[in-house]
Write a structure and sequence with these properties.
The chain is mainly α. It is built from 14 helices and no strands.
Length: about 290
C-alpha cells in the first residue's frame, strides 16, 4: 500500500529563499526638524542629566589628558590642533547617549548596567569599525597638521605653546598656516560628519554592516544639504566654545549634541519595515493543523 505524501510537509521541507534587506530609507527634513530634534535632545538631558554629565565628563577628561600628555612630551604647540582633532571622535563617545534616548523613546527602563552593557557589546559588532574610521581620520588630521607646520613654519616652529602662538599671529607664514589648516580641517570634518551623523545611531539600532550605514549617512546629508550642513555648523560652534575653557564645556555640549543626534536620526531614516509574510519564519509543523484525510 502506497503512502500519500503531505503537500504541506513537502513545501516546508523546501529551502526558503531569503532576500537581502533593502537599504534604509532616507527621508527629507527641514530646518524646523533640526530645531525640534534639538528641543527633544535638551528634554532628554534635563530628564536624566546624570547620564549626560557622565559621558560628557569622560569625553572632557579624555581631552584634558591628551593635551596634558602633549605638554609633558614637550609638544605643547600641537595642543590646539590636537584639541580640535579630538572633537572628531565625539560621535563614537556619544553612543551611550544614543542608547539613553532610545530607551526613553521606547519607554524602557533606564539603568547603568543596561546602558553600559550595550556600549561594551558594540565592540563585537559593526560599530567597532566605525570607531576605527573615526580614529583613522583623527590620525590623518594630526599628520596633515605636522606637514603644514613643516611647509609654512619649518624650523622656526617653537616648542612652547606661547612661542607657537606668537609665530602663528605674528608672521605671514603663521597666518597662512592658520588659513590653510582651517580650510583643510573644515573639509575633513564635513567628510567625517557625513559618514557618521547617521551611521552610529543606525548601527546601534539595526543589524547592518558599517559600509551600508556610512552610505546611508552620506545619502542623508546629500538629500538634505542645507539643514544638515547647518547642523554641522552648529556642532562645530558648540564644540569650539566647549573646548575653549579646557574642555569643561564638553560636560554639557556632548550630551546635548548626542541626544539631539539620536532624534535627528529618527527624522532622517524611516523605521525598519516588517518583513513580508513570505520572508517570515515558517510556523513549526506541530503548530499547524493537519489536513483533512
Amino acid at each position: 500500500m502506497s503512502q500519500e505524501s503531505d503537500p504541506v510537509a513537502e513545501q516546508s521541507a523546501e529551502p526558503t529563499e531569503t532576500r537581502p534587506k533593502p537599504p534604509p530609507q532616507v527621508l527629507t527634513i527641514t530646518s524646523a526638524d533640526i530645531v525640534d530634534a534639538l528641543e527633544r535632545g535638551l528634554r532628554d538631558f534635563r530628564a536624566v542629566p546624570h547620564y549626560g554629565l557622565f559621558f560628557g565628563g569622560v569625553y572632557a577628561v579624555g581631552g584634558m589628558l591628551i593635551v596634558l600628555s602633549a605638554a609633558a612630551l614637550g609638544m605643547s604647540y600641537i595642543s590646539y590642533p590636537l584639541a580640535v582633532g579630538f572633537a572628531l571622535i565625539g560621535p563614537f563617545v556619544a553612543v551611550g547617549l544614543y542608547e539613553v534616548s532610545r530607551r526613553r523613546e521606547k519607554g524602557e527602563a533606564l539603568e547603568w548596567r543596561g546602558v553600559l552593557s550595550v556600549i561594551t557589546s558594540q565592540g563585537r559588532r559593526e560599530l567597532g569599525w566605525m570607531a576605527f574610521v573615526s580614529l583613522f581620520v583623527l590620525v590623518v588630521w594630526m599628520y596633515q597638521v605636522r606637514i603644514l607646520i613643516a611647509l609654512f613654519i619649518g624650523l622656526r616652529a617653537p616648542t612652547t605653546l606661547d612661542g607657537f602662538v606668537d609665530v602663528l599671529f605674528g608672521t605671514t607664514e603663521g597666518l597662512i598656516f592658520l588659513g590653510v589648516g582651517h580650510v583643510i580641517g573644515a573639509a575633513m570634518a564635513l567628510v567625517l560628519f557625513s559618514l557618521t551623523v547617521v551611521s552610529f545611531p543606525l548601527l546601534l539600532e539595526r543589524e547592518i554592516d558599517f559600509v551600508t550605514a556610512m552610505i546611508t549617512s552620506v545619502r542623508a546629508v546629500v538629500t538634505n544639504p542645507v539643514p544638515m550642513i547647518g547642523w554641522a555648523f552648529v556642532i562645530m560652534i558648540l564644540l569650539m566654545i566647549a573646548i575653549g575653557p579646557f574642555f569643561i564645556g564638553l560636560f554639557f555640549a556632548l550630551p546635548i549634541l548626542g541626544h539631539t543626534t539620536w532624534h535627528l536620526y529618527r527624522k532622517l531614516v524611516a523605521p525598519e519595515a516588517d518583513p513580508p509574510p513570505s520572508e517570515k519564519p515558517a510556523e513549526p509543523a506541530e503548530n499547524r493543523s493537519s489536513l483533512p484525510a
